[in-house]
Amino acid sequence: MNDNLILIGMMGCGKSTVGKLLAQRLGMEFVDTDQRIEEAAGCTVSTIFAQKGEAWFRDWEERISKELAGQKGLVISCGGGLPLRKECMEPLRASGSVVFLDRDGGDIYDNVNMEKRPLGQVSREEFLERWRQRLPIYQSCAGYTVTSRETPQRTAGEVLKALAGVRLRFLILNGPNLNLLGKREPGIYGETGYGALCQRLKDFAAKHQCTAECFQSNHEGAILDAIHAADGVYDAIIMNPGAFTHYSYAILDALKAVDVPCIEVHISNVHQREEFRHKSVTAPACVGQVCGLGLYGYEAAMGYFLEGLQ
Ligand code: DQA
User: Which residues of the chain have pLDDT under 50?
Assistant: First the structure.
């Protein structure tokens, strides 16, 4: 991304923390307008407000905004009140994508330390009133609105998704022997190879403005690692654990340990097969299980999550 990425929103909504993460992930430079003003003015924002007043501060914001708008490759965290002045916002808007980080005002007031914030020393009611007044301004300035999540990492992920126009990020996990699809017992699993399955699922995801990344391993530990790493990176896991289904308590525990919903898929109808395949120890940690629908089962599982977005 060459254009700037501009984050706006109420003080305490997470612009700086999320902005730094985004800058890291995108290989861009992070800039905080308040910090820039403090450096240029040689004193804190609170002191400026107390000694010079708000208008003087907004003049500074205007100068800094224009300066930053002339640069490229920046993730800019804007002061909470910066969008109030059109002359500040317009140049920034023209320089890239504006994202509004939408966090509930009550949540901010109750959970964020406001001590050092210039306009933070007010009653809850006053704070909420200001938040309500600013909401439509933030919304009208932003090209994208992203609701703040439980962690800054998650919120940063949502911003990246919004910018890319991606609705869901799927992780397709396949366990042992599924790399041999096409060759392995074709009467049961069909003639399509593993590579072709992955391509089919990626195409299906793309058709629905989603992404699908495929991972297969014959090793339990590698599957555990993939599940652990999925937290905050994927919105849903579609998993065929292969024979691990029937005995891997470690996979069951891994699914329980992360906050990513999973649907278990089996290509064959395991209930029509040997008794030991009837039991899944991993399914209790899943939203549900699809079996016996061939490769379509993976798409059916993805479709379930897509339906949730309608
Ligand atoms: C399977 C069924 C499992 O019992 C078997 O061990 C597999 C594939 C299926 O997709 O039908 O490897 O998960």
Answer: 1
65-97 pLDDT, tens digit each = 999 999 999 999 999 999 999 999 999 999 999
Query: Which of 216, 277, 290, 296 is the best mutation target for the ligand 1 pocket, counting ligand atoms within 8 Å of the beta carbon and taking the most?
Result: 277
CA distance 10 to 13: 6
43: DSSP letter:
S
**Total Cβ atoms within 10 A of residue 274:** 8
pLDDT at 115: 76
Tokens representing 132 are 């309500």
6: β partners: 76, 98
11-44: string of b/e by CB count within 10 Å (b at 16+)?
A: bbbbbbebbbbbbeebebebbbbbebbbeeeeee
Distance CA 102, CA 70 (A): 27
Å from CA of 212 to ligand 1 middle: 21
- The whole-number pLDDT of residue 214 equals 98
Residue 154 has a CB neighbour count (10 Å cut-off) of 17
Atom 6 in ligand 1: residue holding the nearest Cα: 243
User: How distant, in Å, are the alpha carbons of 56, 80, 145, 210, 264 from that of 33?
Assistant: 15, 10, 20, 34, 47
Strand order across the beta sheet in which 74-77 lies: 29-32, 74-77, 4-8, 96-102, 144-147
- Here the tokens at position 85 are 């002045």
Question: How does DSSP assign 47-69, residue by residue?
Answer: HHHHHH-HHHHHHHHHHHHHHHH
Alpha-carbon distance values, 56 to 39, 89, 135 (Å): 15, 17, 24
307-309-310 Cα angle (round to 5): 70
